[in-house]
Write a structure and sequence with these properties.
The protein has about 300 residues and is mainly beta. It has one domain: Trypsin-like serine proteases (Thrombin, subunit H), CATH 2.40.10.10. Helix content is about 15%, strand content about 30%. Strands 1, 2, 5, 12, 13, 14, 15, 16, 17 and 18 form a ten-stranded mixed sheet that branches. The protein has a six-stranded antiparallel beta barrel with strand order 6-7-8-11-10-9. The longest helix is centred in the C-terminal third of the chain and has 13 residues. Keywords: Signal. GO terms for molecular function: serine-type endopeptidase activity. This is Peptidase S1 domain-containing protein.
Length: about 300
């Protein structure tokens, strides 16, 4: 686990204000959790133009449809069950341009997660769960990585975007630390455009406490959800452990790892502030009704800064 001091605060606690830090990052200046990591702890892998071109050709509609989740339970039977009366129900929708399906191969098969465009100076970054990028201790980076914004029943309205760089925390690579289950992907330009210009972005929000209302969207596997569409849910966060938060909502089956938790979401602009991604404890959760995220503090913004520098 992360060897850093942390202090939690409930949402709405005493705050001295909100400070902008870096490209699109916000955090409270007091009464919050402050990460203490100052060194660059990132680990990354660059992807050659030839490999990126190969990934673009590899991901046919048939392969995308056949890809399987790398995580989460196969339906709601495994793990704990929660009272139906207490759980918000997810809804299927047509998706939004800033969130999409992330396809990759982990050396054992074709898989998918969920990822979101996050605001950055390079205008090339996605954020998702680290386990969608690298397998953790003793394992390797994903290959054939491709992102499809607003993927919906096989439709690709913004095309397929290939990766040029993958980045996670070195402590995830060395010990599969669930408190660091987040990472970034830099994308190649497509038709002369960067991903942020093409589809928009969500900002990165750190040190936001708990008890916050979030909109969460992701891509459950069709085998678990016959609607075969992205889903969303509006619910509240709660503290799970020192560096973990949780949210309760139905329908977050396999494929939703990496789904962004959006504060301050606007239905008009279809944007918000990313306060977490499904992952962390139990790989994101062993029931489709309760999902987890590593707590977003300065470790996340430091990692985003490292990714931004290497994204050029």
């Amino acid at each position: 686990m992360r060897n850093r001091w942390m202090r939690w605060a409930a949402a709405g606690g005493a705050c001295a204000g909100i400070v902008a830090a870096g490209a699109g990052t916000v955090w409270y200046t007091s009464g919050d959790a402050q990460g203490r990591t100052v060194a660059d702890t990132s680990a990354s892998m660059r992807i050659s133009a030839a490999d990126a071109d190969g990934a673009s050709r590899y991901w046919t509609a048939k392969r995308m449809a056949a890809a399987t989740p790398i995580d989460r339970v196969n339906g709601g039977a495994a793990g704990r069950t929660l009272s139906a009366q207490a759980i918000t129900k997810s809804k299927a929708f047509g998706g939004v341009p800033t969130i999409g399906a992330l396809f990759f191969n982990n050396g054992q098969g074709d898989h998918f997660c969920t990822a979101s465009v996050v605001q950055s100076s390079s205008q090339r970054l996605l954020i998702t769960a680290a386990h969608c990028i690298h397998g953790g201790k003793g394992k390797k980076y994903a290959s054939k990585v491709a992102f499809v914004p607003k993927y919906d029943r096989g439709k690709r309205p913004y095309g397929t975007w290939t990766a040029k760089m993958l980045l996670v925390d070195q402590r995830w690579v060395s010990s599969t630390d669930r408190d660091l289950d987040f990472g970034f992907i830099a994308l190649n330009d497509r038709s002369g455009k960067k991903i942020q210009k093409a589809v928009g972005y969500n900002r990165l929000a750190v040190n936001q406490g708990v008890g916050r209302t979030v909109n969460v969207a992701g891509y459950p596997k069709i085998a678990f959800d016959s609607r075969d569409r992205p889903i969303y849910c509006r619910t509240k966060t709660a503290k799970q452990a020192k560096y973990q938060i949780r949210m309760d909502c139905t329908g977050f089956y396999g494929g939703t790892s990496g789904s962004p938790w959006l504060l301050n979401y606007s239905y008009t602009t279809q944007r918000g502030d990313i306060n977490g991604v499904i992952g962390g404890y139990q790989g994101g959760g062993n029931t489709a009704s309760r999902s987890y995220s590593a707590y977003f503090d300065k470790d996340v913004s430091n990692l985003r800064a490292a990714a931004d520098k290497r994204a050029a």
